[in-house]
Design the sequence.
């Protein structure tokens, strides 16, 4: 077995990572990860939703050496981002959506990749090594690696948590053939009896199979506990229920029973982080972030052209949702607004949008908003002989209006 790289080089790499703006940097060995059994069961239960890439690359996720032959160490770096600003209670009056805090800046993939490139160059100057950068876009279990590298623990909100910055962080990894002495695995505090994130989740996506803490006031509300593997847990999230998955990764219609709970989130969700007592920083809005990001106008999002979508979101993480996904999410949020000003734009989308997916969600939203204008636009849609998914949604929406009493809507 190769000798460990000199400690002085290791510490200089750590210092360099901190000087690049990372708040923590730890060293883990690149041996196979231990969460295979849990992860296989999680995927088998379908909790990964439509993220088939997770099952397709499972072995590579579990064995870092498959991503970089002869990988010996993984340098795990933690990047902080500003907490979300406070939720605006007047979003419905203003018809504004909400984007998760991590996506409010330039795309972190490219930003952190550039920083790790600098780190890799420094490493190459110090020793002969091959390396590979992974920033949330490759098959690697960053959270388990963060624990292995001593950076923190995985919370019941399924995110990596570090004392101090809490969970408002992103992880970036550098696999290397250089053999560093591993840092001690994390052995500090953890969530303890806290379960605050669970009732805060609007859709019940967080579940645990560990017994409810005896003195947890919220435990009784969480009988549907699924899976927190003992220490060093990966996660117990049911992605199919998670707003973050639904608004970003999920490509088809959002399950009807979940749409009302999505509120005005149009890309991601921060609710379980906002509820977390480990996130002690004040919620602040970064003055440098443009209002189009902080408070995106839902009606604009409903009708962005391809060009407008590219120019507004092309270089940001929001591009992951695609134009049609973002417009779908905007239709859902408009439906949740209870604001009559949303009816005309939704009726336009129902009649003319170039994406069937968006028209389907506009039909649902009109049924939720109610009123005669909503009813007549739904009826016109049905009279035009729409495609089956739209016909079904419009029928359901009209039926909902009838049940509620059409004129009692907004
Ligand atoms: S991101 Fe939102 S929906 Fe997903 S687990 Fe957290 S609170 Fe629940
Ligand atoms: S809210 Fe409580 S249980 Fe949830 S991640 Fe934070 S500390 Fe852990």
Sequence:
């Amino acid at each position: 077995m190769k000798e460990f790289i000199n400690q002085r080089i290791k510490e200089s790499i750590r210092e360099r990572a901190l000087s690049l703006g990372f708040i923590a940097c730890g060293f883990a060995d690149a041996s196979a990860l231990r969460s295979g059994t849990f992860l296989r069961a999680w995927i088998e239960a379908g909790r990964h939703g439509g993220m088939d890439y997770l099952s397709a690359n499972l072995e590579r996720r579990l064995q870092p050496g498959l991503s970089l032959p002869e990988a010996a160490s993984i340098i795990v770096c933690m990047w902080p981002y500003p907490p979300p600003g406070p939720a605006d209670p007047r979003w419905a009056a203003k018809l504004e959506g909400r984007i998760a805090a991590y996506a409010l800046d330039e795309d972190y993939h490219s930003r952190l990749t550039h920083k790790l490139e600098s780190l890799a160059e420094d490493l190459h100057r110090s020793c002969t090594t091959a390396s590979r950068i992974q920033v949330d876009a490759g098959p690697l279990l960053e959270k388990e690696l963060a624990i292995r590298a001593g950076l923190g623990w995985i919370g019941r909100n399924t995110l990596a948590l570090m004392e101090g910055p809490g969970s408002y962080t992103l992880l970036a990894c550098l696999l290397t053939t250089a053999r560093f002495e591993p840092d001690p695995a994390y052995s500090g505090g953890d969530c303890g009896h806290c379960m605050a994130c669970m009732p805060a989740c609007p859709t019940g996506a967080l579940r645990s199979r560990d017994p409810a803490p005896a003195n947890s006031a919220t435990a009784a509300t969480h009988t549907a506990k699924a899976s927190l593997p003992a220490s060093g847990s990966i996660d117990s999230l049911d992605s199919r229920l998670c707003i973050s998955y639904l608004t970003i990764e999920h490509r088809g219609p959002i399950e009807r029973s979940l749409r009302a709970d999505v509120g005005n989130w149009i890309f991601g969700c921060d609710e379980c982080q906002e509820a977390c007592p480990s996130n002690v920083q004040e919620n602040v809005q970064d003055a440098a972030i443009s209002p189009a990001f902080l408070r995106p106008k839902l009606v604009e999002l409903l009708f962005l052209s391809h060009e407008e979508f590219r120019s507004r979101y092309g270089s940001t993480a929001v591009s992951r949702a695609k134009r049609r996904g973002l417009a779908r999410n905007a239709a859902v949020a408009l439906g949740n607004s209870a604001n009559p000003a949303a009816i005309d734009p939704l009726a336009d989308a129902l009649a003319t949008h170039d994406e069937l997916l968006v028209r389907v969600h506009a039909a649902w939203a009109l049924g939720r908003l109610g009123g005669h204008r909503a009813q007549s636009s739904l009826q016109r849609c049905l009279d035009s002989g729409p495609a089956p998914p739209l016909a079904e949604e419009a029928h359901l929406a009209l039926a909902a209006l009838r049940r509620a009493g059409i004129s009692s809507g907004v």
